[in-house]
Design goal:
heterodimer; A: mainly alpha; globular; B: two-stranded antiparallel ribbon; two-stranded antiparallel ribbon
Chain lengths: 483, 490
């Protein structure tokens, strides 16, 4: 199958959903979640039958569009994340309805399911983009749909605040990106990454500062996307204010897309030694401060969403450690494995949180007190997610860190590894804070009834739990997807 | 047919699952632990000493690029560790008192720790060796945090962070070992790593050795990385303290025997003086600290730290006698400290306190408890007849013999000092015995105190029987331990 059809199918699905939504009767808007999830699952299955050779290499768009295994893997990540986000959105629907100004029941719910589908299409294009023009366009498709989604709860002041902050900083980061691209274009005369890679070695050394300046601007913009310190300051407020499923979407898919672009851009430039020796130390520095800041800032948090926001910064740090180790033999797979692991455990955490927060009425850590008595299965799923995020062995999160540290070791980043280890220990502290709340503390209301979980969410939780343990013991299936 | 070693890991895990889900967790976990002990005894019976080496081997390659494989196997040393683990596990679930909160989870956590320890002792793959040990981390956190006493929350954090950091240091060391494997032997198989080490083909260097030493060292409570241990054992509920100090802490010693001895013989000698100094810190300094303790639980916690010094002395001696003594020490100390913690929990339940100043004269009201405690005390400082005695003797012989070839040296000076440790432990152990069971009745001791409960009595008798039987016939263990170190360069 031609890989181009994947994005086309996702966009058509999104358009069909919008049409269906406008014809659906009042009170039935939420029904469009089912075709959305089913359609995405079918497309996800179809990704395993994609044949890159079906793409006409001489066609004009082939210059923009890569179909390597990196691209396919990230398309799968995007699709899987969107599916889980939609399942989360189903659980979240009552909160959305309560926060929308409408006399008609369920009005405005439909778009909440349709918009993530478009975001997904943008993410999938981003995964294949090997031209700055396509990178920019797909990034904007993703970002603009996120602007809407983040501020979706119009009656919730936190959500609106999050939307404004995200809009302002997103626009700023876009500005950096475009400006950086123009500098790179000015030096090389190309926007295509492959073409740039071909031109750079022939450039005069005098052109290097201009090229580095442009690249630096692009990296700043990508730093915003992946939440690297010092470009992380938008993260906590936006994560806390956004609707929970959208927060999960942001923290997984947006970060993954940022890293795929980062990898593609860096692969283009690090082939030249004099650029490499400037870029990689910079990445190492970013990795160090991101690991330290993310983990330290997460420690005092009392709100679970904010805690996961800082934890997402911390994980960006470990991923950047992998990026800084570019050149080690296994590092590419290590980074992708880490992203896959991060996806599983973060989505699990957010899914459980959505369900619990709906029942309890808040997403502070204290709201999880005594969860083990009320809903032992949800508590266990959360325990597993936290153990994996912290990096306990026999979970997928541990293997992710192991592969990254191994690559860093081979590249001799001993200081960074030391920082990594100390910060991992700090991570144990704040992730176990949630375990403590669920298992040590008494519930505020010991006689509260159990928490109802929808069937789709139940199945998703079970699958995610099983994958976290299974891939933590037997990583080969995920690694074979990467290769 | 499933590998018998895999069953040993799975039985506690499945039992734990039943505990979480079903009813009667106490009965079912005693049943599971007893089944595991019987299976271990059966395996020890069918292990062929003539063939030697690793037996009951099974394996499955999981990741070819790293040589990662889920392979299990047991040699004579693993067998001793398995016996220790299953004995202590049975005793620990047996003595568990009435648990009021989340009874199922309490037993599940204990069984998880046991499964992790068994997994680590039978793993032939470096990754699973490490990973299984870490299975215990979260259960320990929960056990101390939920059911602990005193400042349980602070201590649970401290233990978890300490052990997590130690584990990651160890992990770095293990990665270092793996990266030093010569090209062509792409494997994580401990058997191959040992052979490469003995052949001198695997030389990761001094930095990796120090990572491994201090990684394992902080898990074993090597001075000065010991501060987590006494508090943890004092605060943990008795069964958790038994399993952690009796079994889990021995993982570090087992790891040193398995990996450091074959791979780092030169580095062990290079840093011998450092380690000799640190282990004297364990024996002498912590010994005095132990004497100064005013509570039984803390005293036992410190005494377990102190005894680790002997194990390190056997390790640094790096000869057949010393290493065999260290292996016996692992077994002896594991059973002894488990028995002591079981009795300590019982004393606290009976008298309501562990302060020496509140206790005294308990033998008058609880004679059987006093008798059992007396046995455990004598085992602890190595009375002949208990396996502790040959363990200590072999270690001292090994360490002293180490120095003979080159005149009077650091090994022998250290051994001379370490011998005083025996006196120190006799002092604090006998003093504790006297302050609790003899003399005037303390404020907390009344006629109303009942004697030892059957569960504690029988589980302590089980542990003491293990110590006595092997103590009278050390060859039961030594015959399987000795061949493990045959390849060692003298």
């Amino acid at each position: 199958m031609n890989p181009l059809y994947l994005e086309v199918a996702v966009v058509i699905l999104g358009l069909l959903l919008l049409v269906a939504e406008s014809f659906a009767g009042p009170g039935r808007k939420s029904g469009i979640a089912h075709p959305a999830i089913t359609g995405l699952i079918l497309i996800f299955i179809a990704t395993f039958w994609v044949n890159p050779a079906a793409l006409d290499a001489s066609a004009p768009y082939a210059r923009f569009y890569s179909t390597d295994s990196l691209a396919i893997f990230f398309k799968q990540i995007a699709l899987l994340t969107t599916i889980v986000v939609l399942i989360m959105a189903q659980e979240f629907a009552p909160v959305v309805e309560a926060n929308l100004p409408s006399s008609r029941r369920g009005a405005g719910l439909g778009e909440f399911y349709a918009l993530p589908v478009f975001t997904c299409a943008g993410l999938m294009w981003m995964a294949s983009a090997v031209d700055f023009v396509l990178i920019f366009v797909s990034l904007e498709l993703v970002t603009i749909s996120f602007y809407i989604l983040v501020s979706y709860l119009r009656h919730d002041r936190l959500s609106v605040e999050a939307g404004v902050k995200f809009l302002v900083l997103g626009a700023l980061s876009t500005g950096f990106l475009v400006y950086g691209i123009t500098w790179i274009y000015g030096v090389t005369g190309q926007t295509n990454l492959n073409a740039i890679a071909a031109v750079i070695p022939a450039l005069k050394v005098a052109a290097a500062p201009a090229l580095l300046f442009g690249l630096g601007l692009v990296l700043v913009s990508l730093g915003f996307k992946v939440a690297a310190v010092p470009f992380q300051f938008w993260i906590p407020d936006v994560y806390q204010g956004a609707p929970t499923p959208i927060t999960a979407f942001l923290s997984v898919a947006s970060k993954a897309a940022g890293f795929v672009v980062l990898l593609r851009v860096l692969q283009t430039f690090v082939v030249v030694p004099y650029l490499q020796e400037k870029i990689l130390p910079l990445m190492a520095l970013l990795a160090g401060v991101t690991m330290v800041f993310g983990n330290l800032a997460a420690i005092p948090q009392s709100n679970l969403k904010r805690l996961l926001a800082y934890s997402s910064v911390a994980h960006a740090g470990y991923l950047l450690l992998g990026v800084a180790s570019l050149g080690a033999p296994f590092v590419g797979s290590a980074i992708l494995f880490y992203l896959g692991a991060y996806l599983l455990m973060t989505l699990l955490a957010f899914l459980v949180m959505t369900i619990v927060a709906k029942a309890v009425g808040g997403d502070d850590i204290a709201d999880f007190n005594g969860l083990n008595q009320r809903a032992p299965q949800l508590a266990f799923a959360m325990l597993l997610a936290m153990a994996s995020l912290a990096g306990v062995p026999l979970t997928v999160g541990f293997l992710g860190k192991l592969f990254i540290f191994e690559a860093a070791y081979q590249q001799g980043h001993f200081v960074l590894i030391t920082i990594g280890i100390v910060t991992v220990a700090a991570g144990f502290y704040y992730y176990l804070k949630i375990v403590r709340a669920m298992y040590w503390q008494q519930a505020a209301d010991p006689d509260a009834p159990g928490i109802p979980v929808g069937i789709a969410a139940r199945i998703t939780i079970a699958i995610l739990c099983a994958l976290i343990i299974w891939l933590g013991i037997y990583p080969a299936p995920l690694l074979s997807l990467i290769h | 047919m499933m590998s018998p070693l895999l069953s040993l890991i799975l039985i506690p895990l499945v039992t734990a699952a039943f505990c979480m889900a079903g009813s009667a967790p106490r009965r079912i976990s005693i049943f599971g632990a007893a089944a595991n002990l019987l299976l271990t005894l059966h395996l020890m019976g069918s292990y062929s000493l003539e063939v030697g080496g690793f037996q009951f081997v099974s394996g499955r390659l999981l990741m070819a690029s790293h040589g990662l494989a889920f392979s299990l196997g047991a040699d004579g040393l693993s067998m001793v560790m398995l016996l220790l683990t299953t004995l202590v596990t049975l005793a620990a679930v047996w003595v568990a008192p009435n648990i009021k909160r989340h009874e199922g989870m309490f037993y599940a956590c204990l069984l998880f720790i046991s499964a992790g320890a068994i997994g680590a002792f039978v793993s032939l793959d470096l990754f699973f060796f490490y990973a299984f040990h870490e299975l215990a981390l979260i259960p320990t956190f929960l056990l101390i945090g939920i059911w602990g006493s005193g400042e349980r929350q602070r201590i649970a954090w401290k233990v978890t962070l300490y052990l997590a950091t130690g584990s990651f240091v160890l992990l770095l060391g293990l990665i270092g070992i793996w990266l030093a494997v010569p090209a062509g032997f792409h494997t994580l198989d401990i058997r191959v790593l040992q052979q490469l080490g003995y052949a001198g083909l695997l030389t990761p260097g001094p930095v990796v050795y120090l990572l491994v030493l201090f990684g394992f060292g902080s898990l074993i409570a090597l001075f000065p990385f010991h501060t987590w241990a006494p508090e943890a054992y004092a605060s943990a509920p008795a069964p958790a303290a038994m399993l952690h100090s009796g079994v889990l802490k021995k993982f570090g010693l087992y790891g040193l025997l398995r990996l450091a001895v074959p791979i780092f013989p030169a580095e062990i000698q290079q840093f011998a003086n450092l380690l000799l100094l640190l282990l004297l810190g364990n024996i002498i300094y912590i010994g005095f600290v132990t004497i100064a303790q005013k509570r039984l639980d803390l005293m036992l916690g410190y005494s377990s730290v102190m005894h680790m010094g002997y194990a390190f002395l056997g390790f640094v001696a790096l000869n057949q006698i010393g290493l065999a003594g260290m292996s016996l020490m692992i077994f002896a100390h594991g059973l002894t400290i488990a028995a002591l913690f079981a009795l300590c929990g019982e004393i606290e339940r009976r008298a309501g306190t562990l302060e020496f100043s509140q206790l005294g004269g308990m033998a008058g009201v609880a004679p059987k408890l006093g008798l059992l405690f007396g046995f455990a005390v004598f085992a602890s400082f190595g009375l002949p007849g208990f396996i502790n005695f040959p363990a200590e003797v072999l270690i001292f012989f090994g360490a002293f013999a180490r120095g003979v070839s080159s005149g009077f040296n650091a090994y022998q000076i250290t051994t001379a000092f370490a011998l005083w440790g025996v006196v120190i432990s006799a002092i604090y152990m006998l003093r504790a015995y006297r302050r609790i069971f003899w003399g005037h009745r303390g404020a907390a001791v009344t006629e109303a105190i009942a004697d030892v409960s059957p569960a504690v009595r029988w589980s302590v008798i089980l542990l003491l029987a293990g110590l006595l039987i092997t103590g009278f016939r050390p060859s039961l263990l030594l015959d399987s331990i000795n061949p493990v170190f045959d390849l060692l360069v003298p």
